[in-house]
Amino acid sequence: MALRFLSARLAQQIDDELMSASGAFSLDQLMELAGLACAQTVSAVFGPKKYNRVLVCCGPGNQGGDGLVAARHLAMFGYKPTIYMPKPGSKDIYQRLHTQCKNLDIPTLQGDGDAAATLRNALGASDVILDAIFGFSFKGPIRAPFDTAMPLLSASGLPIVSVDIPSGWDVEEGNKDGVGLQPDVLVSLTAPKEGVRAFKGRHFLGGRFVPRTLEERHKLNLPPYPGHEQIVDITEIVQKL
Q: For the segment 143-156, what is each residue's pLDDT rounded down to a tens digit?
């Protein structure tokens, strides 16, 4: 049976089930596993010798939290990540994840002052971008301060790895407005979303935390993960669908 693509409603339902009393996962756990999968994806495609400087772009929500976890793991993997926050998150979990990055001396740039100049300079000193700005709950239009950052990221010419869904894409209708990022690599979390059916780049799945009962109940038809990896390359699988 074919790998299932998730609607916004089903993706949210699965998240709710994972964090319910029966699923028993905490948000911290899911963020940690998602961020680790993202860091492994960067490492699998863009090795640290050539792509050592990773600009991790974090939005203020849970997607940004995944990015902060990924930044920490990338530092542990031998990369030199820099965090860019157009707008920092205010939740306690976000602040704690950011503190963990600070404890590893991972620099953070924020979208205050001359935000455009700050981002241009950061892009000039980076080898690859990890896009963790918007998640599957994104609804346009893109507002300040993200409306300044997004065009600069797109115009940078740097390879982009997007988390779960490229920033600016609708979870079900894809890049319908033509303003979203065009990543080279995508790491879908749990299962790919309907909006990325048209994505043609390298595609990974990160969701080795999904219980078999939940997978079977929702007919996700997930592929097996190799060895001890937290990711699996699904490029050929999704391109045949």
A: 888 998 999 999 99
